[in-house]
Amino acid sequence: MINRNSCSGASVRGGVISACLIAFALAYPFALSDSLWAEDGLSDNQVTVYRDTWGVPHVYANTESAGAYGLGFAQAEDRLDDLHSAVRTGMGSMSEAFGAQYVQQDYLMRQWRNAELAESYWQTAPEHVKQLVGSFVRGVKAYQAQHPERVPAHAVELEPWMIFTIGRAMT
Fold first, then answer.
1. What whole-number distance in Å separates Cα of residue 13 and Cα of residue 49?
2. Cβ distance 34 to 132 under 8 Å?
3. Rounded to 5 degrees, what are φ and ψ at 8?
4. Taking 90 as the threshold, does the pLDDT of residue 28 lie above it?
5. Helical (H) or strand (E) element with 165
6. Which strands, in side-by-side order, build the sheet including 57-61?
7. How many beta carbons lie within 10 A of that of residue 125, not counting itself?
8. Count of CB atoms within 10 A of residue 93's CB?
9. How far apart are CA 31 and CA 150, in angstroms?
10. Residue 87, Cβ density class (10 Å: 0-12 exposed, 13-18 middle, ≥19 buried)
11. What is the pLDDT of residue 4?
């Protein structure tokens, strides 16, 4: 369950680039709580997304995984279109949604095997990484379920391993 608070009615959308935060999360050693959440929700782990005067989200949570969930929800709220475009870029599937002008870019992403390497890494990733990235994706999906009208036509069926394609494409 997401608690949403705002100190003003500002409609300014602040965005956080998920790839940078996930990269930070991967570099930081976490001591995760054993009691994360039930399969379909946060159970006793609550997260609050507070938006300041400028609309910038501030995520407060009881656990790192709950925080990642809140971050995913806020990211989707602010930049859902960009998130799906970034995943498509990393996967090498922009031309499927946006046409021939992206064929060369898609070719490079596929030549670099971004999707294949990201999915392979997911199989061997440390458990805390899987928990954080999985929670982030669950937050994105929760927002999409609550706001299906905001899901772009080019959206992919997001899987946690796909998030790693974003970082690989941007480096």
1. 13
2. no
3. -160, 170
4. no
5. helix 163-170
6. 2-6, 47-51, 57-61
7. 18
8. 19
9. 35
10. buried
11. 62
Q: What is the largest CA-CA distance in the chain?
A: 48
Number of H helices, E strands in the chain: 7, 3
**What's the chain's Rg over C-alpha atoms?**
16
Of 67, 43, 23, 9, nearest in space to 59 by CA = 67
Please say whether the beta carbons of 30 and 64 come within 8 A.
yes
Q: Record the tokens describing residue 57, joined without a space.
A: 């989200």
Q: In whole angstroms, give the CA distance from residue 84 to residue 88.
A: 6
Residue 87 DSSP SS3 = helix
Q: Strands 2-6 and 47-51, how do they pair? A: parallel
Q: What whole-number distance in Å separates Cα of residue 22 and Cα of residue 70?
A: 13
Tokens describing residue 145? 């379920």
| pLDDT per residue as tens digits for the range 74-126 | 999 999 999 999 999 999 999 999 999 999 999 999 999 999 999 999 999 99
Buried b (16+ CB within 10 A) or exposed e, 147-156: eeeeeeeebb
Which DSSP symbol is given to 127? H
